[in-house]
Design brief:
2 helices; 72 residues; mainly alpha
């Protein structure tokens, strides 16, 4: 399986999601039910951001790679 720029971007995006969630938990010492509510809100925001901003750009990058394959 060939790794693409889109794969690297997805990895960095997921890493950012994990770091931001961990930051909130450690900073505000959140435990129990409020933790799940906060994580739900963060997941919703990150999902919306990904869907309307990142995915469009990744699709464009993949299309460019398909039409202009580089010599390996």
């Amino acid at each position: 399986m060939k790794l693409t720029i889109a794969d690297g971007a997805m990895f960095m995006y997921n890493l950012g999601v994990l770091i931001s969630g961990g930051f909130v938990v450690m900073t505000y010492d959140v435990e129990g039910p409020p933790f799940f509510g906060i994580m739900f809100v963060f997941a919703l925001i990150w999902t919306i951001y990904f869907r309307f901003y990142v995915q469009h750009r990744l699709t464009r990058v993949n299309e460019d790679e398909d039409t202009n394959p580089s010599e390996a």
